[in-house]
Design brief:
This protein is an alpha/beta fold and about 350 residues long. It is built from 13 helices and 12 strands.
């Protein structure tokens, strides 16, 4: 099976590095400049585990530049499996750039933080009945690998390769309304199962297949963690450990957990239940820089509209106040503006 990697930040490079041990892998790069940079690095990704002193390089990657104006729609060029690791706010634009290569026989694996990405993607690119006939199979994932991009095409792996509670949790998105026949439905799940199994066969990816309800619950709980730690780490420019030791930050986290418990009653969790999840994550990954913190340091726009922003929008739909999530979202946007993030 050939995997394409769309997004070559820390998550994309970590995934590509491990997939390359057993599969053909093509990196989809955003520009000719990025392509030339990869060539200068001998078409290699550099990988280092946090508990090991030396890094490892792996090569043999194919490459292409994402540009929908130059892509061919020839069936021989269709993509089998595309792992999308861009920021949530870039998913639709990034997938649109390769849409000519995608058919219903393709599979997208979405590994973004936050929620609402799948719905936005389908509404933007495959909204009509004719478009939905060519809708790729979609796998949604919760990514519990902690990684840091140390330089272009270099990644440090902090946690996630050996703990059963970490790694990747993957499930097929159940779009039963798009199937024209039982055969199509069976094909959809055979297709997604094959991709998930290919990932599961690589020990260091630490991939678990779960059913959709299980994944949805994991996504909601990770959303609460991200609403807390990602937001505060970006604002305070701090790793996780000092945040959970900061009594004022802890007050904010309790408030976030309370709002999330009220906005998402389907989690069937109390404020204290959710706080314990956040606390455990903060201590387990105490030295980690969240993706939001990394974005702020690099003066990049964050994906908080899909994290705290998702809670704020859902709260409005359900007529539930969420002032702390709104406050943190506003503060992050103010910080983005202040540092001229792009």
């Amino acid at each position: 099976m050939r995997f394409h990697i769309l997004g070559t930040g820390s998550a994309g490079c970590n995934t590509a590095f491990h997939l390359r041990s057993r599969h053909e892998v093509t990196l989809i790069l955003r520009s000719q400049r990025a392509l030339q940079d990869f060539y200068k690095r001998k078409n290699e990704i550099t990988y280092q585990r946090a508990n090991q002193p030396n890094s490892i390089k792996i090569g043999g990657f194919d490459t292409m530049v994402a540009n929908h104006k130059t892509l061919s729609n020839d069936l021989k060029n269709t993509m089998d499996a595309v792992v999308v690791t861009t920021k949530a706010q870039h998913v639709t634009e990034a997938v649109a750039s390769i849409k000519p290569y995608l058919t219903r026989f393709s599979t997208l694996i979405l590994l973004q933080n936050g929620m609402g990405v799948v719905e936005e993607l389908i509404d933007s690119l495959w909204s009509g009945p004719d478009e939905q006939k060519n809708l790729p199979a979609i796998i949604r994932g919760v990514n519990n690998h902690a990684t840091i991009r140390t330089e272009p095409f270099s990644v440090q792996h902090i946690t996630g390769w050996d703990n059963p509670n970490y790694g990747y949790f993957l499930a097929a998105v159940p779009f039963t309304g798009t199937y024209s026949s039982l055969h199509d439905e069976q094909q959809y799940y055979e297709q997604t199962n094959a991709v998930i199994q290919a990932c599961s066969d690589i020990p260091d990816l630490n991939t678990k297949k779960v059913d959709w309800q299980d994944l949805y619950e994991r996504m909601m709980r990770k959303l609460v963690v991200n609403c807390s730690l990602n937001a505060l780490s970006g604002i305070l420019e701090s790793t996780n450990g000092p945040i959970i030791e900061n009594p004022y930050a802890v007050l904010l986290i309790h408030s976030i957990c309370k709002e999330c418990a009220e906005v998402l009653p389907e989690m069937n969790a109390t404020t204290e239940d959710l706080y314990k999840v956040v606390e455990h994550t903060a201590y387990t990954a105490s030295t980690s820089k969240t993706s939001t913190f990394q974005d702020i340091l690099a003066k990049r726009l964050t994906e908080m509209e899909y994290i705290n922003g998702y809670i704020v929008r859902l709260a409005k739909e359900r007529n539930i106040p969420a002032p702390t999530n709104q406050l943190l979202l506003n503060l992050l946007h103010a910080k983005e503006y202040h540092i001229q993030a792009s």
